[in-house]
Write a structure and sequence with these properties.
Layout (H helix, E strand, L loop, with lengths): L11 H79 L3 H12 L18
Keywords: Coiled coil, Membrane, Transmembrane, Transmembrane helix
Pfam families: DivIC (PF04977)
Protein name: Septum formation initiator
Length: 123
């Protein structure tokens, strides 16, 4: 094999330039490290509010579902209440009370025979 014909000079200028180059590389590494820490801090500054925002959104969705469920229950209870009020108003009528007692409790007068038919109970 042939030896390279390039000769490296080791004078003061070359040593100073090499040292200057090492200092610049160290400064560049320090700057990159500093920028890396800044990037990590910025990521945390964005991650924490994003986490809180997602948590709040999930909580809001759960509350919306609960509100929908409660509205549905309210409608059902309101319908039941209206039906009960209507029945209470109808029970003020003596003829209706007689029909209701005959249909629901199979009450009869003397000599009567009751034939129960499903679905005829007054509501």
């Amino acid at each position: 094999m042939k030896k390279p014909s390039i000769v490296q000079l080791n004078n003061k200028f070359i040593k100073d330039e090499n040292q200057k180059k090492r200092f610049e590389e160290e400064e560049l590494q320090k700057r990159n490290r500093f920028m890396g820490w800044i990037l990590v801090i910025m990521m945390f500054l964005f991650i924490l509010p994003t986490y809180n925002l997602v948590k709040s959104y999930v909580s809001l969705q759960n509350q919306n579902q609960q509100v929908i469920k409660l509205k549905k229950e309210y409608k059902e209870l309101d319908a039941n209440t209206q039906a009960e009020k209507q029945l209470a108003n109808q029970l003020k009528d003596t003829n209706f009370v007689k029909k209701y007692a005959r249909a629901k409790y199979y009450l009869t007068q003397e000599g009567e025979v009751v034939y129960p038919i499903p679905g005829l109970l007054p509501k």
